[in-house]
Structure formats: structure tokens, C-alpha cells
User: Fold this.
Amino acid sequence: MKILVFLEQRDNLLKKSSLEALGVAHRIVQGHGSVEALILGEQAQALCEQAQGFGATTCHYVQAPSLRHYQPLLYKEILVQAIKQLQPDSVLGMTTPLSRDLLTRCAAALKAPLLTDLVDITAQEGRLMGGKKPLYAGKVLATLTYETQGVKIATLRPNSFAAEKIPGTMTIQALPLELPSTAMEKIELTEVRKGKSQKADLTEAARIISGGRALASADNFAILHRCAEVLGATVGASRAAVDAGYATHDMQVGQTGKTVNPTLYIACGISGAIQHLAGMRTSKIIVAINKDPEAPIFSIADYGIVADLFEAVPLLTEKLQGILKE
Amino acid sequence: MRIIVCIKQTPDTEAQIRISDIGKSMLLLQDVKTILNPYDEFAIEEALRIKEKMGGEVIVATFGPDSAKEQLLRGLAMGADRGILVASTSFPQTSSLLTATVLAQLVTQEQGDLVLCGKQGIDEDNMEVGVMLAELLGWPHVNAVTQLTLTDTSAHVEREVEGGQTEVYRVQLPSVFGAHKSLNTPRYASLPGIMKAKKKPLDTKTVSDMGLEEAQLKNLVQVRVDHYEYPPKKPAGKLFKGASTESMVTEVLELLRTEAKVI
Assistant:
């Protein structure tokens, strides 16, 4: 049995979350087969080295200048060819904007069964059988099983599985295939503009500090940004704060925003509407700061502080500075 | 330009989702209040703006239950020209590939030049149908689009990805795009709009009307639901109140360090 893991690079850097997929693949095969990886990129060969020691026995690469950025149809044609050539039992990737797009398109091209955004997997005799997936932004979870034969495709939610150091040797080899020459005629990524911050995206962040309507203005979000700076956290917001114009859409956590999964989530002045809770309830540790002791957010908080956030957050920042310096 | 906006009926964001007691294999969605999938509103708005600028026709379409006419009417009230409901009633279980196959046939029959949809349904959160539809049509696709500028034959498209980065694409039409929130601000359906909507054409079709075979489509359901469950309930946390903010903050930080071990 063979599992192929699609390892994702951005800006010629291997995405750390991709290594989690290698750990999962290793867990699935359990000595019944092999874990192979695939990297596409401008410097893909060099990036293979970084996958060494995480469970893959072979790391295939396709290297070309045109593969520097995600080119949707070019990447798709290569991955479809790779799957046909390598004949894996299943293909794994992470649930990222790139992989979720690419693996879904490949599934349609191959008419292969697909499960996206799994937070757990089921395996039997070295085969991926199915997994668990949150629906309705996490209000319920479904346990799903593949029903058809042929290659099975899945994407895994970042931070749900640990990347493991697995001793062993890995072969690096170029995948022999013809680069499709016309794939960029219909669609071409021409530019990637850097964002304002180099911070981890909410969906991948290990620490998040979020603000609600109680922040009362966009300027007041500065106190969260200062705390985030000290904590190495990404700043999020509730839908109420976004609708009020205090925060931008890309900061929204919840059912019509981002579903997050950090180890630490600090909710400041967020009452805890059901659609917000749905998007952050799988956070490992939740801290809530709110003036209202009856706020629903306290029902899922590990640690709740009934206090004015304008008093509590600066204190938190100040004391964290002391602690993290130690 | 003929623009087809694919929409979906979803439960309201504030709805509690309940699981059947027997077998845990069904969701009890009959009595849940339904809405137009929030992201689809941005797709409809964008289609209307393109039509206003470039002329053409806007069709709202869905593969869904009969009650999804309500969501199609909403699209018509916003300003779409006509609606098409392809009935999903005879499919106890569907899949993204099945839905995409039905919609691809619809787009082909209606000779659409452009397809817009929401970036994801807020029910199953799959983000699959748009890109699958594009693949089946052999068209390009960009999801989570935050900016779209069209000429007759091509599009300049921007989308936000992780880390606040923006990807810029040059796309040849026809194409499928998935709308993100910051694409535009959807208009409200006006009262005259709502009145007019009731007189606009709204066709109901079955998959066989569209030349598709039900049995073959059912083969596209390739994954089975074993059961549903609620997320694990967290044990009650520790609530601090009444003391000075400083002492409460200090105590929680200490617990984060020694008990939770996250800092």
C-alpha cells in the first residue's frame, strides 16, 4: 500500500503544516506499505531535504521556474499525472487555500472519492478508510467512510495532528514527466502581494487573541495588537466587531468567517454567539475576558475573567512581557 | 454575458443543529430556519454589477429541495432575471461531485459565459462544488475572490490567501469564481423588487429533464456517513470574578503556565 503526500511550498519554503500530513500517512501505513511525498516548485529538489525524518521513504519532486507559485491548472495536470504514475492507495494534503483547491480539482478529474478538512482519520491494514470532519463550522462532527474503490483523496485540518520525527532514510528523486505546455493559457497567477503582517494566518495560528463589539472602535483593537505582539499571536474578531467596522473580514472567526484551532484562544469582549463558538470551540485552551458574568463564552472557557477588557488586556500584556522574558 | 449564479439553501447561522437519537446517522434539519448561503449573496451582487456594466442576463440556479425556491426568489428580488431549480428530492444523499455534475449540465444547456458562486456553503463547509464544476466544464476557477475586473474575454482576479497575502490571477473566460465577503456589499431586495420577483420565470426541472440518469448520478456518492456526534463538551472551566483585575489576570497567567502549559 502506498500513500502519496502532497507537500506544499510557498515562497520556496516548505509549509510546516505539510509535515503533519506525513505523520498521518505514517500512522496509516503502519508498516503495511510506504509513504511517498511530492513537492512542486522552483527549488523543489532542495525542499525535499526538509521532509527528511518525518516518515517518507521517497520524496518526488517536479522542478521548474513556472512552478514557483501555485498555477492552478498546471499544478492539477502534474498532480493527476503523478497519481496515475505512482498509483497510490490514497493522496493526502493539508486543508490550505492551495491544497484544498488542487486536491478537490484532482478528485473531480479522476472521479475519485474525496474527504476534506478531516480532524481525525480511520485506517485499516495500511489503508485510509475515512475520517471525522466538522460540519456547520463545528456544531456537529460526521464520521465518514469511503465507499468506492480507486485512489482516495483527503485533506487534513492544520494543527489537528502532530508532525512526528520518524527515523529512517528517504530517497529524493525527480518525477519523470512532461510539463504540460498549455496549462497556463487559461489561468495564470501573475503576482503575489505581501500582506501587511507576516503573522501566521488565523487558520494556522497557534495563539489567537480576538476582540468583540465591546472593543467599541477600530482604534481600540490596538490594545489587542500590542498583546498579540508580545504573545506571538494573531488577532481575530467576532462577526459583531467586523459588522460594526472595527475589524476587517479576514479577521473574522466563526461560521461565516474562519474556523480556527489554536492552542491558546483569548476572547476579549466577545459574548459568544453560537456561530462564533462554532468557529473556535476546538481551541485547546480558551480564555475569556468579559464584563458580563452571564456571557455564553464563559460556558466553553477554560479560564474566565469577569472584568473590563480595557483594564484586563493591558495588564495581561504587561505581565506576559515579564513572563516571556524569563 | 450570460451569468449563472449557483446558490444553496443552508440552515441559519444561529440555528442549533440536532442529531437524530436513533442510530445517530441523521441530522434533524426539517424545522430549522433556512437562509440563502451568506457567501452566495456576494456572488449574486457581483453578477448584477457585471450585468449593469456589460449587459446580459443573470440566472440564479440551485440543485436542492423544493423549498429552495425561497432562496431563488431572494435572488430574483435582488435583481436576477430568472431562476432554475433542479430538484434533488429523489436523492437521499448527495455529494459535491453529484451536485457539480448536475450544475455543469445546467451551465452547458443554458450556455453560460460565466459562473459565480459563494466561496463555500456554510453547512458542510466543503468548498468543493465550485472547483469541481470548473473541472467538469474544463474551465479555470478561482475561489475566495476579493476583487474581480472583467473584459469580454478575460478577468483580473484577486484572492486572499494565508498570512494576509493576495494572489493575482489573469483568467481567460469562461470561468467559475467563488465570491468572498470583501468582494462587494450586497444590495437589499427592495419591496418593488420582491413584488417583481414573483412574476419572473422560475423553472423547476428534474435531472432526467436535463438528460442525466438518476442511477448514474447516484454512483457519484462515494462516501458514506456512519454517524454524527456533537463536539465533546468541555469540562467546566474556572471563572474568576469579584477580585481585583490585576490579581485575576495574574492568577490566570499562572494557570496558563503551570496547569495548561500553553505559555
Summary: Residues 58 and 80 of chain B are 5 Å apart (CA to CA). The first strand of chain B starts at residue 2 and ends at 6.
